[in-house]
Amino acid sequence: MKKITFILLFLSGLSVSAQEIKTLTLKDALQYALENKSDAKKAKLSVENSNHQIAEVRSRALPQVNLNGGLTYNPILQQSALPGEIFGQPGAVVLVPFGQKWNSTATATLTQNLFDQSVFTGLKAAKTTREFYIINQQLTEEQLIEKVAGSYYQVYVYKQKLANAESNLANTKKVRDIIKGQFDNGLAKKIDLDRISVKVSNMESARQQLINAVQLQENTLKFFIGMPMEQAIQLPENTIEVTAEAFTEKVEMSKRTELALLKKQEQLYRFQKKSYLAEYYPTLSLNANYGYQGLGKEFPWGAKPADGVYWTDFSSIGLNMRINVFNGFSTRSKVRQAEVSLKKTEEDIKDTELALNYGFENAKTQINNSVINIKTQKENANLAQEVLNNTKNNYINGLASLTELLDAETALTEAQNNYTTAQLEYKLAEIQIIKSKGELKNLVN
Prior knowledge:
The chain has one domain (about 25-60, about 115-280, about 325-445): Outer membrane efflux proteins (OEP). Helix content is about 65%, strand content about 15%. The protein has eight helices and eight strands, in the order αβααββββααβαββαα. It has helices at about 1-20, 25-35, 40-60, 115-185, 190-225, 255-275, 330-395, 400-435; strands at about 20-25, 65-75, 80-85, 95, 100-115, 230-235, 285-295, 310-320. Strands 2-5-7-8 form a four-stranded antiparallel β-sheet, with no helix packed on it. The chain starts with a helix and ends in a 9-residue tail after the last helix.
């Protein structure tokens, strides 16, 4: 029994450990974000809610049916003064009570809009509102993709810096072991051993700082994609690839979601203006009702004429027209406010077009600089590695000082970090280029 329990626990441990680390490609991270991040979910819910908004507006064009019922008891009936001639009492005034002690009614009413310009305008606006939310969902997803992609590459850069630090630390430890061996044999000075030991200690501290930085960046990425913090992740090797990119000469404005959203908002403001203008139009509606009424001295429910309660039905059909003659210039004020909103949106569109062109030109310049910088920094890193190897050999053979060796190691670390940073700058600029083309969703597909 103990053996079986041990085996089950062992297999369970293997299962847990297999689930501990999740490998994330950029595509995986983006898909996870679009499915799990609250911003993406809320954008989808807004589209769903727009269908209900359309149904709400459409209801104003459909018949409205209501059922009403009431039961009234009159302890004291109101009396009216009538001329006595009616009752054979000339010159006198007779007080006559009207109505019955009990009154019960049940009524069904129907109202149908025959003409209401605001309803017709509202239906068109509701459909446009749905289109607005669909575009807004697309923009939300694009913004999420941009944010996640940038954070993803940040994780890679810090992991690459950590890998460089660990590699350099291992090499420096080898040099320290060599110097220690020489010191033990009386071939090296103690100060050299102390200096290289301090160097190792500093590199270990820097390595630990990079480990913490990687954890912070991974947490940031998990937050951006909506992943639980306890989920461990890893990035595949060779995440950043610098390839030739075909760039357009100008921004494809027709593909930019930001502009499409503003233009749809402009369309909504035009419908809003038309809705306010509709207040000047007359409205025409059909009204119909049918009811049943019981009157008598006794409680009417279940009673009959023999009990002194009389039941009768009634009905009416009519047309209602309403014409807005004067409302204190309220409609005129609302129309002018809508016109101001339209003008502001037009300015937003112009400013957004300028900003998009500005961002594209900057990204294009940045990516060109990054390509040159990557090539330069890669050559520098290779050269720094070669210098370090030669300096290490010269130091072992007594042809170089420890200071020269330590300087060569520092130069290599700096060159490697510069190369990694140049890769990051390239990828961030590449994201902006893809965004300018309106093709961020292609990163997911």
